[in-house]
Each structure stands twice: as structure tokens, then as C-alpha cells.
């Protein structure tokens, strides 16, 4: 019983992280219909920037935890957002009118570039950050206990906050209206005076920023990372996006939570060696049974 | 176009400065601050170099695209997604002379080359096989398969585990591995191929990882990360080892002194024959209705389905054929290494094979053969740049897609004309 509850707690935080990254996939897919393969590696870049920001802030003698975490969040989100913009500008915009296969291959190329670029400049070794936030809340359940670390609570709080802000931006602001219009019909939106190229850039930046939030939180919690972390988590976040219905923003968050919970339960109760296999198999199963996902609309191909 | 005679240096300078500022943001932390434990060491020299390169490069580019030549070039690259070059109907291919020559040279290679050169050429040929297999899937049928390495692994482990558990040798596993890989392709492809192409990419990516994870974790069957040894091919029962437990070895039978190069010569000759067989089969298939259906489906799926093509079956045939070629390549890889372990089958291998297809040209056989040799033999020669290999592949993919999405070697096709005396 306590294992199940503990895994539910772990799964909830894991799922909210998947949800944050899945937002990047789902928004980009919704707006230009491509899978941004480099998104997982944008997350990986943000993990490095987190460590660098923490190292810099401590170097300048800042000790208090709230300032470090706010400074790290701000720096990482800003720099990662710039990465998102540049990636779109270099690798995707010149291919706006090419075949989907070309864009996909270009994205894979971009993903390789990012991995190798980080590996070359930071070395192939695993890196880490110091544990900044310790302590936990414990509940006794039956014979065992369930532990919720403060870090897990922080992850939940910040990711829910991030999703909330994003939902507000998309639903209520002018920028969000422009995004939604472009998603529904790009040609019509540009006729009505929306600079669709700019909107697409913005979407990439938003996606990268959300991935950066996840990058900061996971890095702070988990501590260690290397240049290869983006690959697996990228596929899982994509699975979450597909599960929730690709193109749907609430779907990405819901899909992330469901995937995180089921993966944590699988790892805790059945086998942690095969938890990645479980997630990939889940992806294949969803695509076979319900390719439009939980909240997505079925795709109709028009000539 | 004609009024843009002068170059607006002010605009170019602003472009360059903006690019430089962005480069500073991007490279500043990652390149400039080298993590070292929980501390760091500053490497601002590297950042300065990179920013300078970006600023100068952007300035030159911005100036160039304002000249008439640049405008013309930008226009040309914006519209270069055309299909095959069509030759005149009575075009005579020079290949009639080149192919026998290549075969002749290829047959001479093992007898003149050193052992090291021979091993590099074998590796090159294995990648030719992989490239040809993936080219059927990506190049001809337009299905992006990112888990191709999974089929490669099935072939390689098929040989190793088949020998260990069932006592099957190289010759029996060669066809069985191809069938196994094709079967795996069918199981994977059948449900997924109904869907949009992009999903296929990610599902195959997941499949490749699943295969690797199973090979790593299922230690009781696959021996996990330690790997399994694989048998060498035999020549009518003659083994290529120094001593044989049962029967004679090759060098004893022919009264030759033992030389470990014999086995590579033999593998090379079989591989050479298989590559030519695959080349021939592919060459014929492309001209057959099924090959035309693949290409038609790649160009316009909706139109094809409207005309009554069963898109799932057509795609599945390409997918299985590609997979079986991958399986064949895996068998050769295992016997060539004498040993397989999961670390040979990472996503990087899939990316390398994809780079071969992208560089060689979608659907172009000649291009893939050349690209496979370039991308495997060149890194072997330029060992000191080995760590930049992946970066180069990535840049190659992006640049090729922007610059020449159809690859270096364009697909050519002989045109049709009415026969003499046919009713017009």
C-alpha cells in the first residue's frame, strides 16, 4: 500500500514534468504539423544551463535558496527560449514549404547537432548540481510511510503555475488569440493580418521555455544529467502529447500526468528495468487504438 | 531584382550585430562556462571566437544575398524540390561498361589490399547494404524509419543467438535472419502504417530503443551488455579458424599457412556478392509496378489511394523489404566482428544510416553506395576529427534538406516513347 502511494506521489511529479515538455511538442505540432525532434535536446540544454546558472550564482556569493531558484529559473528560461527561437529560424523556417519528410530529417539533424555541441563544449561526463532543498513531509501508512520531499512539492507547484500561466496566455491574451487563429487556419490568419511566421517563432519559444521549466525542476530534484538525457525524456513527453491528443494543450498536461502515474506504478510494482519499454509500448498501443488521443480531434486529410 | 544594385551595408551590419548578440546568449553559458564538479572554469576565449565567426559569417551572408547573384541563388534554392531527371528514350547508359569494371576491381580487392583496408571496406559494404535497405523505406516509399538499427540488431543477434541456442551456422542464419527481420517489420509496420507518416518516425524510434533495451536487460537470454560471440562463415564445412574441433580448417585443407586475413577475404567475397544481388533486385523492383507504387505513394498519398492503391500493403512491402536488408547487414556485421553487444545498436547508428540516405539522394542507388563509403571510410581516415563526427552528420542533414533535399546524386529515369510503327 505504501509503495503504491509513494509511486503515485512520484508519478504525479514525473507526470507534471512530462506535461511541461509535452506542451512544446503539442503546440508546435498543432501550428505547423511537424514533430519537433530537437525538443528533447532543448530540454537537455536547459539542464546544462541550470547547472551553469547555479554555479554562477553561488560564485557571486548568493546563498539564499529562493534567490538562487528564481535566478536560475529566470536565466534558464530566457536562454533556452533563445535556443528555441534560433533552432526554428535556422532549421525549420527555410523548409516551411518543403515536404514533411524534409522538415523531419532537418529536425533530427538539429537534435544531433545540439547533442554533439553540448558534448563537445561541456565534455561527455555526467554533470551534477548540489542538493539545494532538503527535507520532506512523511505520512505513516500501515507499516511503512510515504515521503513527499519539499522538492517534489516545488516541482508540482511550479509546473502547475507554468501551465496555468500558459493557459491564461493562450486563452485570454491577444498573443494567444493569434496563436489559436494560426493553428486553426494559417493561410486565413495571415490574410487577416497576423504575422504567422512571428507566431510560429513565438510558439517555439514558448515550447522551449516550458521545457526549460521542466529542465530546471528535474535537474534540481535528480541532481545528475548528461548530454544524452533529452532523448528518452523527449520520446516520453511525445508519448504524453500523443496520449492526450496531439495539438491539444490540456491534452498534453493530462497525457503527461497519466503517463507519469502509470510509468511510476509500473516501475514500482512490476519492473523498473523495463519502464522505458513500457512507455514506448504504450505509445505504440495508443497510436494503434486511438491515434487522435484522449482530447484530440481526428485528423482529416484534405486535398 | 534590378534595383538592388548597391549593397545596404547598414542593414547588413545590424543583421550581423543581432546575430552576434544572439550567439552571445546561446554560446555564452554553454561554451563559456565549463562545468567542473559543482564549480566551473571560464572559457571566454572560445565564446569570443564563436561569436566572431557568427558575426562575420552573418555579415558576409547578408551582403551576398543583396547582390544579384545572391538573389538569384536564393530564388533557385527556394524552388528546388523537383523530381527525377528524365532522360531521352534512346539514352544509352554508360553503366553497361562501368558495372563489369567495378565488379572486376571489387573481386581483386581482397587479394591486393592489406588486412586493415579489407576490414574498412567490409564495414563500408555493410553500410552500403544498410543504406540500400533504408533507401527503399525512406527514399522510395517516403516512410521515415528511425529504428532501422532494430532490424540490424535482429539480424546480428539472430546469428549469434541462433548459433548459441540452436547450433545454426552462418549460411542457414543468413536467410532466416532476413525473414526474421522482415517479420518484425511486418508486426511493427502493419498497425502503424495506416497512420500519418510522422507517427511512424517516432514509433520506429521507440521500436529501435525497445530492441536495444531488451537486448541489454534480458540478460538470461542475450547475456546483456556482455554480448554474445558469433560464428564465422564456413566454406563447404571448412572453418576459418586456426584449429577446428570437428573436421578440417580452410588452411589445412588447402595446405596453406594460417592467416587471419582469409576469413575477411571470404566474408568480403560473400558480402560483395550479396550487395550486388540486392542492388540488382532493387534496380529491377523500382521499374516494376510495386516500385512505381512506392514512389507514387511517396509523392502523393491521397491521389494514390483515390486511384485504388492499397496504401498499407504497398507501404508494408517496402517496409519489410527494407527490414530484411537490414537483417542481412546485421548477420554480416556479427560475423565480421565475431561478437555482438547492445552498444553497437544505438540511435546513433540509425542516424548514420539516415545520413547516408539523405546525402546519397532519396531513391538514388548510386548515390547511396557512394555516400555509404564516404560516411564510413572518411571517418576511418580522419581519426583526429572523430569527436566532430555526429556534429557533422547533424549539420549535413539540415544543410542537405535546405539546399538539396533530393540528395547529391539526382534520380534519373529513362523517358518513354511510342514504338516505331505503333498506331498513333
Automatic annotation (TrEMBL), chain A:
Biological processes, Gene Ontology terms: D-alanine transmembrane transport; L-alanine transport; L-isoleucine import across plasma membrane
Topological type in the membrane: Multi-pass membrane protein
InterPro entries: ABC_transp_permease, BCAA_transport_permease
Sequence intervals crossing the membrane: 12-35, 42-62, 68-87, 150-170, 199-219, 225-246, 253-271, 277-296
GO cellular component labels: plasma membrane
GO molecular function: L-isoleucine transmembrane transporter activity; L-leucine transmembrane transporter activity; L-phenylalanine transmembrane transporter activity; L-valine transmembrane transporter activity
Location(s), subcellular: Cell inner membrane
Coiled-coil residue spans: none
Keyword Transcription applies: no
Membership in a protein family: Belongs to the binding-protein-dependent transport system permease family. LivHM subfamily.
Protein's recorded name: Branched-chain amino acid transporter permease subunit LivH
UniProtKB/TrEMBL annotation, chain B:
Subcellular location as annotated: Cell inner membrane
InterPro entries, per the entry: ABC_transp_permease, LivHM_N, LivM-like
First-listed, main subcellular location of the protein, grouped into a coarse class: membrane
Topological category with respect to the lipid bilayer: Multi-pass membrane protein
Keywords: Cell membrane, Membrane, Transmembrane, Transmembrane helix
UniProt key word Acetylation: no
Membrane-spanning parts: 12-35, 47-65, 95-113, 119-138, 143-163, 169-192, 199-219, 261-281, 316-339, 351-378, 385-403
GO molecular function terms listed in the Swiss-Prot or TrEMBL record: branched-chain amino acid transmembrane transporter activity
Domain of life: Bacteria
One GO cellular component, as annotated: plasma membrane
Domain (High-affinity branched-chain amino acid transport system permease LivHM N-terminal) ranges: 14-108
NCBIfam families: PRK11301.1
Protein name, as recorded: Branched-chain amino acid ABC transporter permease
